[in-house]
Design brief:
By secondary structure, the protein is α+β, with helices and mostly antiparallel strands. The chain folds into three domains: about 5-55, no CATH class; about 90-120; about 125-260, MucB/RseB, C-terminal domain (Phosphorylase Kinase, domain 1, 2-Layer Sandwich), CATH 3.30.200.100. Helix content is about 45%, strand content about 20%. The chain has helices at about 5-15, 20-35, 35-55, 65-70, 95-120, 125-140, 150-160, 245-260, and strands at about 145-150, 180-185, 190-200, 200-210, 215-225, 225-235, 235-240. The protein has a seven-stranded antiparallel beta sheet, sandwiched between helices. The protein is extended, with a radius of gyration of 28 Å.
Length: about 260
Amino acid sequence: MMEHSEIMELLPAYVDQELGIAETLTVQRHLDGCLECRREYTEQAALSKRVRSETAYFKAPPDLAARIATHIPDTLPQDKPRRISLPSFPANWNLSWLQLGTAMATLLVAVWSAGLYLNLPTADDRITEEAISNHVRSLQADHLTDVASTDQHTVKPWFNGKLNFAPTVIDLAPQGFVLEGGRLDYLDGHPVAALVYRRQKHPINLYIWPANGKDAGPKAESSRGYHVVRWTADEMHYWAVSDVEESELLKFSGILRLATHQ
């Protein structure tokens, strides 16, 4: 049982959905009975939401283009250089160039802010990194499975009552991908089913949870030395993560997709 101080230290990671399933459930149970921690969680969650939603930006004045155009000199004759005499400048010269400089600085800041916004990670990028972290954590903690079995008729019923959906469990041993079991995990803000397969010495974590969108074909990505293949079918998300060769992981996804539609 965790101490109150330990829960407080875990709250930032809990708010950012960076905890494993076991720690997440422990924090949730503690919040149910601790008013102080629940109040602290509410404040941290509100702050996190503001940081994500309130992106600072600068809006250029509507007359910026016209103001810049008025200060751009016409093309100078090539055979007669134009001489500028400082005393002949209009009285408002300093003010005009100061305004132009301010406008240009504002424009540069706006472009810089837009670049930052365009480089922000997408929701899929965030889930990819979270799935890889969960995969690595399951290997480091030696916690690949909660139910260890090569029998799909043992693994599938184990999830009954633990999730609000029934994951499809298929043994692909004849195709070279051996089912080893399953466990509960936490991904994209909610519990998911994690099925564990093995290709020779390489474990594969297959995360499954309900989807609201349309079916989507497999997409392969790589990060931190791991490969991810994700797809959506029959109102379910599938995210496979492993250090096996990308071609092998794509083969796994193809076999599984065919098997689930037979």
